[in-house]
Design goal:
Layout (H helix, E strand, L loop, with lengths): L4 H16 L3 H8 L3 H9 L6 H10 L4 H5 L2 H7 L17
Length: 94
């Protein structure tokens, strides 16, 4: 069975959310959408945009093509939880 790009993306987002434990609301906050918009995209009522694919991929620490390659590849590319930002070392902090 061959899935469309949008179907593959919906499956991939669901697989990653399951792996990370993120709720739709947490994901929506992270990528600048409302929970309702994420729900509509995941149900297929409205398509994901390319800008949103970029935001999703960036949020999960991977390239957009990794996200579009399907659930198996994307979950293997996942860097989660994201590494914490290291504090910047300055002359004053030494």
């Amino acid at each position: 069975m061959v899935f469309s790009t949008l179907e593959t993306l919906r499956l991939t987002v669901a697989a990653i959310r399951q792996r990370t434990g993120e709720s739709q609301r947490e994901l929506a906050d992270a990528v600048g959408l409302t929970q309702d918009k994420v729900s509509r995209r995941q149900s297929g009522a409205q398509p994901w945009t390319l800008d949103e694919v970029d935001a999703l991929a960036g949020h999960w620490g991977m390239g957009p093509l990794d996200l579009l390659a399907g659930p198996t590849h994307a979950t293997q590319s996942l860097t989660w939880p994201r590494p914490a930002a290291q504090p910047e070392v300055t002359d004053e902090s030494r």
